[in-house]
Amino acid sequence: MTAVDAVAGSVLAPNYHPLPVTLVDGLGSWVTDDEGRRYLDLLSGYSALNFGHRHPALVAAAHAQLDRLTLTSRAFDHELLEPFAARLAALVGPLVAGPPMVLPMNTGAEAVETAIKAARKWGYDVKGVPADRATIVVADGNFHGRTTTIVSFSTDPDARGGFGPYTPGFRVVPFGSVDAVRDAVDETTVAVLVEPIQGEQGVVVPPHDYLPGLRALCTDQDVLLVADEIQSGLGRTGTTLASELWGVRPDLVTLGKALGGGIMPVSAVVGRADVLGVLTAGTHGSTFGGNPLACAVGLAVVALLETGQLQARATTLGRHWGERLDALVGEGLLASSRRVGLWAGLDVAEGRGTGRQLCERLLARGVLAKDTHGSTIRLAPPLTITPQDLDLATDRLTTALR
Ligand SMILES: *Cc1c(COP(=O)(O)O)cnc(C)c1O
Q1: Is 186 noted as a catalytic residue in this protein?
Q2: How far apart are CA 325 and CA 360, in angstroms?
Q3: pLDDT tens digits, residue range 322-360?
Q4: CA dihedral defined by 243, 246, 249, 252, rounded to 10 degrees?
Q5: What is the pLDDT of residues 194-223, one digit of tens each?
Q6: Distance (Å) from CA 58 to ligand 1 centroid
Q7: Whether 153 is catalytic
Q8: I need a surface site. Which of 66, 87, 128, 218 has the fewest CB within 10 A?
Q9: Mind listing the domains of the chain with CATH numbers?
Q10: Catalytic choice (228, 251, 347, 371)
């Protein structure tokens, strides 16, 4: 997109190409536009809205905190910081390899940067990698955020091109191959950083032996397994972490998106205390990380996930939904569909238009979705969606494809 394509008269930088809809209101799985039309939100802010729009428990927690204390900076403690860390550690700690620590940040990219910094420092302080030589193995097709370091190891030309010089120290290997990672690991390697399921790439699920293979390799080579669960985590796949689907406990996990309950950016790294413990006072930080309002919302998010009910719901609803999506493949409307929990990547069949065109047809039929990579669309309904609304959305998808 060039400057001349930008919306006439807009001063907004043209780094997005949104669908032509202006939203004014949202509740649960539904949003309303400025002309009063209603839509089912099947994008859920790329999983930032796992609990739907304005979940009452989350809004109540935010409101209560707004009337007490909203920001302290980490120069001072506040009453929700330890409780938030403790409750998040109780939820996610058992799913990581070793006694956990929690390091709160704001955005997903910041959590990934934090994990990279912790892994490098652990490599120098503990593993004994020579200064400034640390390497991290990553997968092609990855999406870990938009900072200069993170785009340095992106394989998406749009995300990476034009932003050099690039941060060194990353080795990119094919997603899904343990052998490729084994070949890339040497005595300088401090971490393997992967998304257990690649969301942005179109909900790409690796072979069943990939995550367990990475776990065994990392343990064997004294390399940290870092799972970016910013999109896959917190219930989306029917489990608290996608890594659980393979019984794998990473050394570090990055969380974001849904951790902010659709209200504000909240992210965190949860992982081995002996690794995060290398980030001593003054070595890393954030003005807003772990602020009182973020902790209030984060605590309420953890409370929603503690019972396991939403995760179970994603599994059950997803099973029926998956059957319906597979039927669309059977009908020749979709070339293929991948689904885990309440998360699906759909490849539009040839002759049925681009992903973007399908999203425009869905918009006209009252469903919000977003294309990714040409002919693929990704769907992530709120975990709180009713079976009726999910069926309605799937009916509308079927008509839009026909
Ligand atoms: C969205 C996302 C990020 C980046 O999160 P931001 O909050 O946009 O910085 C990182 N990793 C994964 C897997 C994501 O889906």
Answers
A1: no
A2: 19
A3: 999 999 999 999 999 999 999 999 999 999 999 999 999
A4: -30
A5: 999 999 999 999 999 999 999 999 999 999
A6: 21
A7: no
A8: 128
A9: 3-54+311-401 (3.90.1150.10), 69-306 (3.40.640.10)
A10: 228
